[in-house]
Quinolinate synthase (Effusibacillus lacus), 367 residues
Amino acid sequence: MSVVNQLLNLQKSINEYALLSSEELDERIAAAKSKLEDRLVILGHHYQRDDVIQYADHRGDSLQLARIAAVLKDTEYIVFCGVHFMAETTDILTSDRQTVILPDMNAGCSMADMADDQEVEECWEFVTKRFGDSIIPVTYVNSTAAIKAFVGKHGGLTITSSNAEKVFAHALQAKQRILFLPDQHLGRNTGVKFGIPLNEMCVYDPKEMEIEYPHGEGDPRIILWKGHCSVHMKFEPRHVHEVRSKYPGIRVLVHPECMYETVQLADEHGSTDFIIKTVRKAPAGTKWAIGTEHNLVNRLAQEHPEQLIVSLNEMVCPCLTMNRIDRPHLLWSLENLLAGSPRNVIRVDSATTEWARVAIDRMLHIS
Ligand code: 13P
Ligand code: SF4
């Protein structure tokens, strides 16, 4: 069958699943899960929709899910409800005997797409020419396997929002400067926590292939890749002022992918896990405006009716790619596993896996 016909058939069968009633989807997902028994584990990121995350055997942030993947030695199928780079990380951390499935291949991450391997090679040449052998590359896990492999090969490691300080401490002991990929905001906000002045952080623009000094030209300790999360960029300083005047006494809690100016105005900032734990331990009556992905903020609001929880920007949309994973795609993936024909398999080639694993293992070792 031609590739076009295969794609048309694939589309046709997914469209059929999209027509199923909510009850039928729930019944068939539950039935498929129980037939697959312990051959299957479903991992779900906290940003997933409620109707999907309810089926996750383990839910977590990207660091927690990577840790779980690293110890799933006997599971034949791992269905990852999250985005592409997370499924890649899972494949890297599991053996060739195991199969990782992403229910919808369109579940990418626009931030991860902002750094491609060719551009990163060019950047490395540029910065090492300018600053010599003084740089360690560090990549946020929100990056492709190829970028993780590049970082592993050049003595660096991966980072997540929940271990950012530990990884920075390690990196700054190893080298004078960090090349931070691909999220400039997590890099800048973590640098500030380390007391690094803004004028000692520059930004590398991969399109212009040049360095910018948005806060003055000091000797850079951190070279930030010019990338961002389009969801977290929607939380602006004006939203902090607006929410404080609308809800007096409200506390503002944001993810470090938000821009520096917003983070500085917030009462607290931290990873997805930090946000969840902070809300869980707050007393009844606490008011929160949270700057992170919409599905998670809504879930926290439902789970904590004793607190007032709103989004820092009530007009913000959920992460569109995280939301690509829905029950029809999940059921389609599970029933294909039952039929013995896994679809949407995520397989990272062995050369990339080898070096990407080095970068991830270095991170897991110090986290
Ligand atoms: P965590 O590392 O907090 O899971 O975040 C992943 C992510 O995609 C944030 O936008
Ligand atoms: Fe990527 Fe942002 Fe979505 Fe996270 S919230 S998956 S960084 S686009």
Observations:
- The first helix runs from residue 3 to 18.
- Residues 83, 109-111, 142, 229-231, 293, 319, 321-322 surround iron/sulfur cluster (ligand 2) (CB under 6 Å).
- The radius of gyration is 21 Å.
- The longest strand covers residues 40-45.
